[in-house]
Design brief:
This protein is of the alpha+beta class. The chain contains three helices and six strands, in the order E-H-E-E-E-H-E-E-H.
Length: 125
């Protein structure tokens, strides 16, 4: 998730703005910058997706969260690109919030203590 604080009003409530057109906005998105709009004062601003401490962790490509679990090939068909990456050593990862299945070479963040980790919890029981 983004750690955004509005520089105009100090609010932490925001929404992502879809970026259209232009080379610079698309390039900034590739490097982890997202255009957000404050819900209080409606001012747009660029915010960094990745903090330096979490740069090495896997993130959901849809919602950018780090609360991730694993998935099984029994319930999800892999694409050719995913199968190729899995053969090279990537891990099967599933976002707990938006249910997006993807593969990643990055380390998956360990869940907080006392919080069930989704699929791993059901498979153990």
């Amino acid at each position: 998730m983004l750690r955004f604080t509005c520089r105009y009003c100090g609010c932490r409530d925001y929404r992502l703005i879809p970026v259209v057109g232009g080379i610079l906005p698309r390039l900034l998105r590739k490097f982890g910058m997202e255009l957000v709009r404050c819900r209080e004062c409606a001012q747009p601003s660029w915010s960094s997706l990745w903090g330096l401490r979490q740069l090495h962790l896997a993130r959901c490509p849809s919602c950018y969260r780090t609360e991730l679990t694993t998935w099984s090939e029994k319930y999800h068909r892999t694409t050719a690109w995913q199968a190729w990456r899995l053969a090279l050593g990537a891990k099967r990862v599933r976002c707990a919030a938006c249910r997006c299945n993807f593969v990643s070479f990055r380390k998956v963040a360990s869940p907080a203590r006392g919080v069930p980790s989704g699929l791993d919890q059901r498979m153990a029981g």
